[in-house]
């Protein structure tokens, strides 16, 4: 996590808000403890770390809400239900979590809401298609990797539109890491159901509105040019969530 391609590439191009992901695992840790343990302080810490993540970048909050929804769904309705004190007690702890986060984030939330309802929102898709993950990007080393080519040359080609992928590849998972993840998912699929689901959901959403393979989003099917639409299109019509037009983040 600390040395993944996502963090290193964004650090290299100066997008330090997206490099600042350190708060995310702390939020997830205390969210799980909030679900599985009765201590109130876990909810307080989870709320604090959620705000710290959102202060790094507001969209982290949206992503974490989506992840929280998946984790809660499995905690409440999955086979291995681990909810300390029952659902009513959990609801109180989650309310405390949300209250802590809301109060701490309020000074920033007020002007944000003012901008949202003040006509600042831009129409259209922006560069959602260009700034999406190429399917081969998951298994292709980034240009910062010793086997990934020349970094400066890759940046130049990306700006010119002549690079292999439409945007700088940030999602290389590492061959060993990916192999271990697949082995673990198969071996412990019931225990890791929430994490497997999360990986699939966010992986598919990161592909953007149209499937891209090796820099192409238009495919020839016996003379018929076609696109493959993906679930990210749905997010474009969801308030607040649609503000994120860069799927590869």
Automatic annotation (TrEMBL):
The chain crosses the membrane at residues 12-32, 39-55, 61-78, 90-110, 168-186, 193-211, 223-241. Keywords: Membrane, Transmembrane, Transmembrane helix. This is Glycosyltransferase RgtA/B/C/D-like domain-containing protein. The keyword Transmembrane applies.
């Amino acid at each position: 996590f600390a040395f993944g391609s996502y963090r290193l590439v964004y650090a290299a191009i100066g997008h330090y808000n997206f490099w600042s992901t350190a708060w995310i695992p702390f939020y997830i840790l205390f969210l799980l403890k909030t679900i599985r343990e009765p201590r109130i302080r876990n909810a307080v810490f989870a709320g604090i770390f959620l705000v710290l993540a959102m202060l790094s970048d507001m969209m982290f909050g949206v992503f974490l809400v989506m992840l929280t929804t998946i984790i809660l769904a499995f905690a409440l309705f999955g086979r291995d239900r681990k909810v300390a004190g029952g659902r009513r007690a959990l609801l109180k702890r989650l309310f405390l979590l949300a209250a802590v986060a809301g109060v701490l984030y309020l000074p920033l939330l007020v002007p944000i809401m003012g901008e949202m309802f003040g006509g600042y929102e831009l129409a259209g898709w922006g560069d959602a298609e260009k700034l999406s993950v190429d399917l081969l990007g998951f298994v292709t080393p980034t240009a910062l990797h010793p086997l990934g080519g020349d970094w400066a040359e890759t940046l130049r080609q990306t700006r010119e539109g002549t690079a292999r992928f439409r945007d700088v590849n940030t999602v290389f998972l590492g061959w060993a890491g990916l192999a271990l993840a697949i082995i673990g998912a198969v071996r412990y699929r019931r225990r890791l159901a929430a994490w497997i689901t999360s990986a699939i959901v966010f992986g598919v959403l990161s592909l953007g509105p149209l499937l891209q393979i090796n820099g192409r989003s238009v495919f020839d099917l016996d003379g018929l040019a076609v696109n493959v639409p993906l679930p990210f299109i749905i997010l474009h019509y969801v308030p607040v969530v649609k503000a994120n037009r860069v799927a590869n983040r």
